[in-house]
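Appendix B, Record 12. Input sequence as logged:
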Amino acid sequence: MNRVEPPAAVVLLSGGLDSATVLAMARAQGFSPHAMTFRYGQRHEAELEAARRVAARENVSDHVFVEIDLAQFGGSALTDDDLEVPKGRDLSEMDDGIPVTYVPARNTIFLSYALAWAEVLGAVDLFIGVNALDYSGYPDCRPEYIEAFARMANLATREGVEGERELRVHTPLIDLTKAQIIAKGLELGVDYGLTSTCYDPTEAGACGECDACLLRLKGFAENGLTDPAPYR
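Logged structural output:
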């Protein structure tokens, strides 16, 4: 009897909590994950090392690093040394407008690269860890954006025009709280100690004060757990 190979899927893997969870979910759904990580000009390498650790533990089919330079444009506290990462904000402040940590057009660029690789792999499934609840400030994390990108993908690719399968962008975390994401990941065996979410880490660990850290810590606390990642 011939063994049926699982279908390939491209998973955007930043090395953070959300993308590690999505990677585990893609595998649990029966896909063969091909991980894509970006060195896009971010001010630190911590998440890149975390992506390597997560991909190795999950034994992904392939893991590629894409080099682009969004830092040459600036416009984000994640790429521009002249902009400070906000610290110590409460949840009401995080919901007030688009934060300075937003990287212009980042998800559109990332998904476009993932789409190109998917075509080469013969895959029609892309996974991305966007979330519209705990981080509603990012315009490229909204359901309507993802739906629009998927429509574009099916208009702009060979598979979409000539193929018999519809290209799909999976966003399994989009309507989950951080606590729910963590609970799901733990159920799937995700080792969150390998991940890095902080916007302003050092070699000693995460800052514990940026928006990403505060939301992450809140999610673990709501599960009655201590975050296993190192904090300085």
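The chain has eight helices and five strands.
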